[in-house]
Design brief:
Six copies of one chain form a homohexamer. By secondary structure, chain A is mainly α. In chain A, 67% of the residues lie in helices and 0% in strands. Chain A has a domain of 37 residues.
Chain lengths: 76, 76, 76, 76, 76, 76
């Protein structure tokens, strides 16, 4: 895998949330590296509310880690 | 994406809970940005108890992060 | 939404557990604010063990936040 | 609800694990207080592996809270 | 239940991971104590990927508690 | 089981994320040690979006533990 994660620090909470999304997607990509399959799955499940809310749960879990890292962006 | 998250600090626990809801919804919206699909999903699944309780779980996970940020609103 | 959450502090662990239940229910209510739909869902799913155990998971997640807030009720 | 939770402190890790089980069950019981329905559900789902592993997840989440409370039973 | 959990301390991270597996299994066993039913369930679901990944989630949750206990095996 | 986990410390966040993936896979492998069954399951479920997003959740949970261990790679 190419280099994609050098730091958990971000400038703003929103940047941190978007990094959490990236981690969540990379967790999927490492588990299923074939691009075509991923794309097909996204088309099928992107309309499924249970899938979407679970995706949001994964993002929340990763965001917790990133928010801790950044001391909740106390000086922001 | 427009600017939507500048701070995890809120004045009251209830404001924090409502911010947790916003984070949970944004996790869904980033995963499925098409408004019409989201609306259709909400109509279908808004009556599904398993979906609703999972949504509450995501909110709880985000609320934990926000409560930590605000030191549990100790002075509230 | 009316004012419903002023503090995460409670006198006893049991009060804290019951507040965790309230947070879990409010997470559902914010996601589906229509009372009649909620009532129908509760009738359908209140007998479903998978729903009940997931509800207990949400409560556990919220209880963690509240127990931390109250320093685990160290003087109780 | 009668008084059932006075403290999160236990003497041993195993006592703490068993208290975590109690919290997990009470989360179910508060959500569905009718005893007959609970009993029927337990008969139906007690053989379902997905239910059992989810129950174990709830216990793990509650155990974390209790282990923190007891400082991981450092003197045990 | 016999005595099965005296301490959350382990010598190595791998021992801690294996203790996390034990806690996860005990969570199932307390919920369904009948051995024959457990064995049948394991045969049915041991091939189900959704069950296996959920089991891994429970282990991850318990491992977090044990890693905290052992201060992440800092001297290892 | 052979020796496979000596330390939770890694040089970079990405190495930590990849170790989180390894822990998630080992949680599956301990639960279902038969290689052929695991391979069959991976073929069947590797295209299932709900499975993939749950796998990403397990990775997120393990990554939290590893990020804590490494003090969020503060000097990275």
């Amino acid at each position: 895998m190419e280099n994609w994660l050098n730091s958990l620090f971000t400038e703003t909470p929103q940047d941190g949330f978007e990094l959490a999304i990236k981690l969540s997607r990379m967790g999927v990509k490492y588990t299923q590296p074939t691009k075509e399959i991923l794309k097909k799955g996204r088309e099928q499940y992107g309309e499924d509310a249970q899938f979407l809310i679970t995706a949001s749960h994964v993002i929340a879990t990763n965001f917790r880690t990133i928010a801790d890292t950044n001391n909740y962006w106390l000086t922001a």
